[in-house]
Amino acid sequence: MFHDYDHDPVGEALVSMLQERFITPHHSALMAFVLSEEQQFAKLNGDRRPVREDIRVSRRRFAGYDAVIEHERNGETGRVDVFYTNDQGTLAVIGSWRTVPCRFKVDFVYGHAVVKHGTVIEWWLVHKHGRYRVSPLDAEEMAKTLLYRVFRSLDYDPALLRDRSLKLAGTTAAAALLICAPGAAAVSGATATATAVGRLGQAFGAMNLGRVLGESAQHGREVVKNAIMAHQALMLECVVGRLRAFDKLAAEARASGKPIPDDHLYTHDLVPGYSVTARFTQTPGEFTVHYSGDDGVPFGNNQGTVEFHNHQLTSWWFLSGKKRLKLV
Predict the structure, then answer these.
(1) How far is CA 214 from CA 164, 169, 178, 232, in A?
(2) Fewer Cβ within 10 Å of end Cβ, the chain: N or C?
């Protein structure tokens, strides 16, 4: 699209506008937030080593985003991770009379930035459909990806999926996941399923899904399959637990005749290697889970998006490096 960047005035204009209208102000807001939180953390923690766990992770808001900030992830001094969700919709439309008909939207639902000693070293935004991500650290590549979507359907692009994703039919444990149906008995069944899959995952051992996918050419099908199952087991235990707790909250709200407090529609958990954010709605069984983390690989920043409708898991994407894995 921007094959010859030096002779592409439209491409230059789009990248320039992307920087001006979104990346620069967004980066400024992010860094102001991180600096403020670092100062507060240093004041409360002092010189304690290890750091105080009760203040290491906290939920905040910045520039209109719900955010979870984690200090010194994996014990790394000077590291700050910011995980945040966007429910404001489209944040910017990039285009003008100079670029018509080339225009694109900046429209993401989840972000993960890694700041180390005051510098952003990793920064990813996950598109609202959870199928791909972009990095504001590379404005040109981000513009190419967003503009590509203007000319393509938001449905799957088979050619792109063949090149950049991996799908292993029969390894998604979809039957087990879809047991999450309404009602206490069904939730109990879902919990039992998650526990059983959890035991299965433990039997496989602690397998690094991001690394296995990155080295998939070096591993047999069974190794990749086992890594996927172990990863699903890890996430299911967290997700099903949250679903059960939220269904109880929804039942209490119905009994009282009052809506669920907005603050309770957003939850956060830490599981080994990942930060997990669940966003519920006032409609029982309608919620989305986003997660991100290094999965044992420094600054690997693997991301996942899990969607539930009517208590049934309808979509699960895992994004790692240049590969996309459709789990469900």
Answers:
(1) 11, 19, 28, 18
(2) N
The tally of CA atoms less than 13 A away on the side-chain side of residue 83 is 27
Domain boundary among 136, 155, 174: 155
Domain span at residue 83 reads 5-155
Backbone φ and ψ of 281, nearest 5°: -125, 175
**Among 219, 214, 194, which Cα is nearest to 271's?**
194
Q: What is the pLDDT of residues 234-280, one digit of tens each?
A: 888 888 888 888 888 888 888 888 888 888 888 999 888 889 999 98
For residue 20, the 8-state DSSP code is: I
**Alpha carbons 328 and 284: distance in angstroms, whole number:** 21
**Residue 160 burial (CB count, 10 A):** 14
DSSP state of 165: E
Dist CA 270 CA 280 (whole Å): 18
Report CA torsion sign: 33, 35, 40, 45.
Answer: positive
Closest CA to 324 of 138, 58, 77, 124: 124
- Judged by DSSP in three states, 204 sits in helix
Burial of residue 296 (CB within 10 Å: 0-12, 13-18, 19+) is: middle
Whose structure tokens read 């991770």? 81
Residue corresponding to tokens 């050619």 = 159
Q: Is it the case that residue 137 has pLDDT exceeding 90? A: yes
Last residue of a domain, one of 122, 155, 188: 155
